[in-house]
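Q: Second attempt. The first request was missing the SMILES, so the protein and adenosine-5'-triphosphate are both included now.
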Amino acid sequence: MPSFHREFSLSDALLTPVLSRLESIKDDHLGLSLLDADLIRDLVLKGKCLEIHLVYPYPCQTRIPAIEQALNAALTSLTEIDAVKCHIDFEFTVQSSPVKAPIENVKQVIAVASGKGGVGKSTTAVNLALALAAEGAKVGLLDADIYGPSIPIMLGIPHFKPVSPDGKVMIPAKVHGIVAQSIGFIIDGEQAAVWRGPMAAGALVQLINETQWPELDYMVIDLPPGTGDIQLTLSQKVPLNGVVIVTTPQDIALADAQKGINMFQKVNVPVLGIVENMSFHLCSQCGHQEHPFGRDGGQKMATRYGLPLLGQLPLILTIREDMDKGLPSVVATPHNDIAQLYLAIARQVGAELALTKAQPSVSISMSDE
Ligand SMILES: Nc1ncnc2c1ncn2[C@@H]1O[C@H](COP(=O)(O)OP(=O)(O)OP(=O)(O)O)[C@@H](O)[C@H]1O
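A: Got both inputs this time. The predicted holo structure:
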């Protein structure tokens, strides 16, 4: 992100102290000061009230009160200012690939992947999508986990069937403030189980292109686990702006997650960071913590690859219960600690995308044989 200073229409005598205070406030997700991150677009003094227009490149609706509080605390110590009023907008970049056709109406595509099965990839994808929406973005969720689509149940719509008014494109489900499409809405699991990788990948690309997505800031794709043909073909054919890797701290899961990181890096899909799921067991009765899958494996892997650790989720009964009820934690209990962890992950994912430059895509030759 460029370091960028704009012209503001405050008097010189006031501008200097205002800018120095804004310089001292850091945006935690971008890792830059409000000025260097170019978040401040306008400063207007009306009487003794400083009106500040901020434009964020990632969704952070739930943080607005804290942002306003920080600005008030920093600026009202100046004698010329006794109040600060913020106008906050979001502006998400459209990052396009030079070689891959964009998905119509979709600004950014985020894949959620794991090397190993059962580590909580779908749970993370669903809560990430809902958290991005809670933070103010328009979000679509695509369940591409062709051999085990679980998102219909996790969203509480196991029997949804998409309609197609024109026989060409399908209308996705609208649920909990996002739109969702799943291979599980259309075919049964046994049918998909016999598809080989290239055929399954072809079906997924068709599903993406034959869904009538409304305007979306982010599309979250829940990939099948592993690093095989499906993940490779989707990386090649779908304009992925970044991938989130989900792992547990267990050695065997970490080894497979590393294969995933290597694969996505090879095909120039930026790895946005690592979510360590089931980091520790949190007893819902007494709050006691233990580490059944080992400790800090995700953190160590993030450090080794120079990637952000986006968050660490406990192994806790309520996450599984919420999912089984079709009410993921972000919507079931939006104010509790688990939802706050997912919201922080969503903001960081949005910020990482904003910091990521579009990567040139490489061509991988794939064959059906
Ligand atoms: N942090 C957690 N605490 C408790 N239960 C969890 C947690 N994360 C996931 N689960 C539960 O673990 C099970 C597997 O999760 P999930 O389906 O998300 O894994 P996955 O990696 O997508 O699996 P698959 O390989 O089948 O795609 C689900 O029952 C889910 O509710």
